[in-house]
């Protein structure tokens, strides 16, 4: 790959499933003469096992069970310039799930608790233990962060959620902080009291959030119901403009105006939800400011950010198993930004300017200089808005801190799931939603080097057409069954992480999603690898539903 006439990545290698296994960023060579390299390994199910920044373990249900992160922390010694030097910190992050597959716990076990005074390990990775509780409809009822410690004196944070009666809309969030004394180790020598704060939320009749944080965020919307402005306490009002594809292409406040350019689905399916560049200028005089351009590697699991040009600085992007950015490396081969893995993205990124110390979870206080690099990508298809703390997600906005979901109901209706505000079914480390809609057709190149597979997904509800004799519900043969047998739809949620998924495009998204779900309820009469395979079933459903959505929209137009 070339960028500005120079090699961007070299020695790029792939496995038979279309997954990258290694490459080098030559521009990160610095004075050493050799660039930083990436090396990736996968298991027989196509799941990522190791990368240059982490190692991954998976359970029998195909869910991520542990991530061994390699993060940076400050050392006691300082550089001649007075900045803290840094060293790698190994962190074993264990994930737990409830019976519905929703994330229920995250625990961090660092390989050391030693940090230079006055910092403790939680200032790098956040609370050591997090637990999440859910109701039967996928609404979070409580989040509890313990073993918090740290220099901010908060020992634990319990966040309780109250819903509006008869809805999935959050009415209020109550934060109860247990205040402890700062110390060594886990950072708390005992409780000295509690502090309680309640955040209230206001919604309109259509299920769109119009204000929260006690009035600190107020939303304005255009005629299509999209957010057109947000008033944020302390940073004023930011106005937003969207195009006909619902892409947010412009935002403006009293300091600067930014224009964003997106990819094209015709060139690469699904790229329309990913920003290619953001170009800024001063609002007062139109003077050009620092711009950002993102570069992606096409992979079997979708666009992978591999480099970013921020102003005049080119940086390598290191991603995780979902193609979520976790680290940036500069031309000198030094880490310049990191985002530790947390349950729902609630832990802020940090930079080496303050020795990787980051803002405290649940606190509005900022760490001076910790955001020297303005890098906005978060989960796939999301962009962080510094002015609000929200993640823009094409059709909607995601709040990782308080609501831990979307700020408006799913535009595709109940076909996206019974809970129209939930983000990827409560498992953001297992699924992605680049459009904020989640209706896709997915391709997997083979189970254990056997049969390839095609299936459909509607907001995390994934299923494919299989021969009824499939062992363990997955195609293993024999040929006799593949040629002619009874068929059945089987859940394919465990195959998403190793598949390439593209968004289904149609004239009416809500109609199409309902149609795809109905199509599964009317399956082919039998399974045949040549005439009624998983590919035939998925493509027939897609083509039929897309065509019907356009006809339905046309009929609606005649009826007006």
Total strand segments: 37
Mean pLDDT across every amino acid position: 82
Radius of gyration: 24 Å
Per DSSP, the total helix count is 4
Percent range of helical residues: under 10%
Largest sheet: 21 strands, antiparallel
Structure description:
This is RHS repeat-associated protein. InterPro entries: Rhs_assc_core, T6SS_VgrG/RHS. The chain is mainly beta. The protein has a domain of 121 residues. The chain has 4 helices and 37 strands. The strands form 6 sheets. The chain has a 21-stranded antiparallel β-sheet, with no helix packed on it. Strand 34 and strand 35 form a beta hairpin. Helix 3 packs across helix 4. The longest helix is centred in the last third of the chain and has 25 residues. The relative contact order is 0.10. About 4% of the residues have low confidence.
Question: Can you give keywords for this protein?
Answer:
Rhs_assc_core; RHS repeat-associated protein; T6SS_VgrG/RHS; about 550 residues; about 10% helix; 21-stranded antiparallel β-sheet; 5-stranded antiparallel β-sheet; single chain
Furnish the topology, listing elements before pairings.
Blueprint: E1 2-3, E2 6-7, E3 10-14, E4 20-25, E5 36-39, E6 41-42, E7 48-50, E8 54-58, E9 64-78, E10 84-97, E11 103-110, H1 122-125, E12 129-134, E13 140-146, E14 154-163, E15 170-182, E16 188-203, E17 209-212, E18 217-221, E19 227-232, E20 236-242, E21 248-252, E22 256-262, E23 275-282, E24 292-299, E25 302-310, E26 313-319, E27 325-329, E28 335-338, E29 383-384, E30 391-393, E31 396-399, E32 405-406, E33 439-444, E34 453-458, E35 461-467, H2 479-483, E36 487-491, E37 500-503, H3 509-520, H4 534-558
Antiparallel strand pairs: 1-2, 3-4, 4-5, 6-7, 8-9, 9-10, 10-11, 11-12, 12-13, 13-14, 14-15, 15-16, 16-17, 17-18, 18-19, 19-20, 20-21, 21-22, 22-23, 23-24, 24-25, 25-26, 26-27, 27-28, 29-30, 30-31, 31-32, 33-34, 33-37, 34-35, 35-36
Helix pairs in contact: 3-4
């Amino acid at each position: 790959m070339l960028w500005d006439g120079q090699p961007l990545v070299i020695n790029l290698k792939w496995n038979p499933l279309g997954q990258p296994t290694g490459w080098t960023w030559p521009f990160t060579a610095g004075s050493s003469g050799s660039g930083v390299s990436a090396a990736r390994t996968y298991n027989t199910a196509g799941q990522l096992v190791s990368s240059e920044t982490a190692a991954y373990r998976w359970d029998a249900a195909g869910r991520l069970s542990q991530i061994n992160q390699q993060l940076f922390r400050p050392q006691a010694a300082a550089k001649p310039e007075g900045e803290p030097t840094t060293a790698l910190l190994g962190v074993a992050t264990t994930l737990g799930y409830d019976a519905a597959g929703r994330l229920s716990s995250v625990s961090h076990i660092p390989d050391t608790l030693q940090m230079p005074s006055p910092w403790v390990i939680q200032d790098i990775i956040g609370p050591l233990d997090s637990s999440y509780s859910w109701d039967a409809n996928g609404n979070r009822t409580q989040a509890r962060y313990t073993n918090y410690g740290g220099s901010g004196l908060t020992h634990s944070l319990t966040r309780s959620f109250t819903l509006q009666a008869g809805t999935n809309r959050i009415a209020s969030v109550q934060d109860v902080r247990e205040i402890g004394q700062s110390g060594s180790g886990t950072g708390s020598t005992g409780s000295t009291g509690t502090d309680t704060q309640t955040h209230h939320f206001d919604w309109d009749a259509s299920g769109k959030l119009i204000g929260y944080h006690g009035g600190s965020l107020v939303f304005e919307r255009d005629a299509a119901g999209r957010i057109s402005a947000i008033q944020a306490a302390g940073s004023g009002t930011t106005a937003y403009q969207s195009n006909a594809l619902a892409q947010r292409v412009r935002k403006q406040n009293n300091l600067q105006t930014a224009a964003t350019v997106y990819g094209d689905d015709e060139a690469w399916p699904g790229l329309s939800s990913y920003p290619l560049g953001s170009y800024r200028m001063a609002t007062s005089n139109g003077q050009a400011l620092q711009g950002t351009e993102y570069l992606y590697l096409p992979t079997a699991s979708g666009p992978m950010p591999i480099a970013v040009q921020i102003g005049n600085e080119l940086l390598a992007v290191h991603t995780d198993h979902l193609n979520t950015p976790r680290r940036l490396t500069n031309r000198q081969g030094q880490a310049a930004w990191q985002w530790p893995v947390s349950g729902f993205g609630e832990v802020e990124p940090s930079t080496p300017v303050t020795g990787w110390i980051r803002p405290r979870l649940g606190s509005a206080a900022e760490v001076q200089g910790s955001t020297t690099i303005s890098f906005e990508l978060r989960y796939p298809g999301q962009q962080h808005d510094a002015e609000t703390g929200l993640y823009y997600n094409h059709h909607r906005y995601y709040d990782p801190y308080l609501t831990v979901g979307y700020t408006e109901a799913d535009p595709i209706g109940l076909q996206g799931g019974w809970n129209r505000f939930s983000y990827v079914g409560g498992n953001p480390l297992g699924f992605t939603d680049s459009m904020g809609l989640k209706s896709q057709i997915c391709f997997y190149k083979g189970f254990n080097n056997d049969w390839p597979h095609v299936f459909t997904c509607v907001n995390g509800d994934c299923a494919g057409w299989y021969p009824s004799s499939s062992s363990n519900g997955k195609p293993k043969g024999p040929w006799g069954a593949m040629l002619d047998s009874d068929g059945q739809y089987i859940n394919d949620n465990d195959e998403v992480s190793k598949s390439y998924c593209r968004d289904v495009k149609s004239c009416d998204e809500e109609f199409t999603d309902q149609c795809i779900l109905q199509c599964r309820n009317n399956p082919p009469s039998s399974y045949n690898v040549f005439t009624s395979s998983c590919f035939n079933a998925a493509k027939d459903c897609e083509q039929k539903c897309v065509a019907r959505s356009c006809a339905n929209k046309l009929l609606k137009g005649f009826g007006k």
